[in-house]
Amino acid sequence: MNFKQTSISIFKIVAFIVALGFITRIMLLCLPITDAHFPAIDYVKVFLFGFVNDVCIAIIASIFMELHLLFSSNKKYKKPFGYLILGLLLCLLGYLYFFKTIFDEYGNAAPLVAKLVVGLATLIFAIFLFFPKTRQNFRFGLFSMLFFVYVFLFLLNVVSEYFFWNEFGVRYNFIAVDYLVYTNEVIGNIFESYPIIPMLVVLVAISLIITYLFVKNSRKEFKYFMNWRGKLVHFLIYGMFFVSALYLLKGAEKFETSDSVFANEIQSNGLYKFYKAAKSASLSFEEFYQQIPEYKAFAITNSIYQNIEGLQNVKIITDSLPEIKKNVVLVTIESLSGSFLAHFGNKENITPNLDQLADEGIFFTQLFATGNRTVRGLEALTLSLPPTAGESIVKRENNGDYFSTGYVFRQKGYTTQFLYGGFSYFDNMKKFYEGNGYQVIDRNMFDKDEITFANIWGVCDEDMFRKALKVFDENAQSGKPFFAQIMSVSNHRPFTYPDGKIDIPGNVKSRAGGVKYTDYAIGKFMEEAKKRSWFENTIFIFTADHCASSQGKTSIPLVNYHIPAILYAPDFIEPQQITKVASQIDLLPTLFGLLHFSYESKFYGQNVFDSAYQPRALAATYEELGYFRDSILTILSPVKKISQYVIQSDSTYHYPATKILEINPKYADEAIAHYQTAVYIIENEKNKIK
Fold first, then answer.
1. 142 Cα distance to chain centroid
2. Backbone torsions φ then ψ of 385, nearest 5 degrees
3. Is 225 a residue whose pLDDT tops 90?
4. Can you name the residues that pair with 563 across neighbouring β-strands?
């Protein structure tokens, strides 16, 4: 294609996307859910700044077509370059097929996709190299396919925006991001709710017709191409438009100033809203969840937690006995569902070491995780706060200087550390823990001879525990007590670990193997720890970050939030079982009680041994917020929806649920109060220490 034809192709895509944007706004204005009674000036803004938003999105989105056209040429197929490039592609393809690569660490899908992509690229290049007469038609076909993808995806987006707006009355937000996280559940729900197959068939047919109309006269343009100077000029011009679009898109937000939420939302662009939601990782409680008056919400939580009055969640904890400065090692085990332990009915004998520790320590039999991702578990154990809608605080901006469990330890003279066998930049862990005063020790700090086995997630748990023992030996020499949190990684897909350790081979890649190997590594860790001088002055906590699964018949199936928790210190703790319902956020406050710490608390977590303890648990997804108390599970959902279930007592810990038709206002208000006050405290930085 020459300079003019390349520009026309990009313009066609931009014009098509902008036209769809205009049609989408008309559609959203006409939907019954939309309150379109706003001033005339708002209509002007909706379409004027809406046009600017759509043009910017269209320019940004067209970069794939721009790159595709600019990289099309005939020169790379000339000798010897063509044969050299084909040789490199074949070597890469052979490497992917006959050697273990980084893609294999992700499971079956990743290596297959990598092989298909490289294989297809190699095949196309070979066809272009050896059959030069086919290049023109083949290139036209590729161009048409790419154009079809643009048309189909943006038409699909219009349909998606229609259904999303019809349900929530807004453009894409974090709920839409959540839909991508829970792909299986969402796709299943969509197929059950809408006639997806007929809609897709119609969209494909329309996309084919539009694509034909746009590209039917373009075949002859693929015989010759611009020289490198023309391509450079074209790319520089496109680059200026691209950068300008980025700035204009951000600037247009300042004009979303209408008193009507509908006007502001329609003025914006759904795809840009999706990007912002993914980046900010938040979901407005005020906008999407039922609320009660602020003073009432805090009155409820202040009563439950014996707090000082006011909008601050502060409690003065005073213990009459002398403080005990024992070392504390918190082992957070990846995806350790309660159902894996023999104590909860498992018959596979995959956690013999943890089951033995449960018999010898304080064992929580009804403790529930706050979420279904690692960052939720870390947030609960570190900040002792209810989970809030959207992403965990660990992954949000401005997540440092929180009142944390580590802060309480440091106030008592402890060294605080976070140890992780992977690279802690993942999930923002490094920034979060360093920002809250912890020393972070991750894979970057392992010497080569300290790593015997590793996969994509990090070093195996044995290597992590060996490193931890070295760190703790150094800590003991300093004379200061230490609090160290270890995050394991081996019980995570692809479930690979060193061979010869357990009776399930590492190459089987089974969940049972991952659990059993982690348990084996814990057994070895404790065996070695008992030989250390610091062992007798140390309390060990073993718990999970979350369960291995979160799917169930309800949006928050309690069985899939049920995790084990063990406090172990044989010369200090008498073995016992805690059968009260408890939350992950209660673990560290309970430990502080055992150590007789006196401190000013900003935690929602409680000491389960306190006479004022009120059993309850908090559990959430990205958007569903659960509160479990007195056998009633209350779930707060977007669009200000509340549902409740009676949870039956069950010795097998399956927690069967029966929906309640009439909402119990007491527990509904308590649920709202927990999450509403937590949001208020976070947004107003009431939990900050600076």
1. 35
2. -120, 155
3. no
4. 367
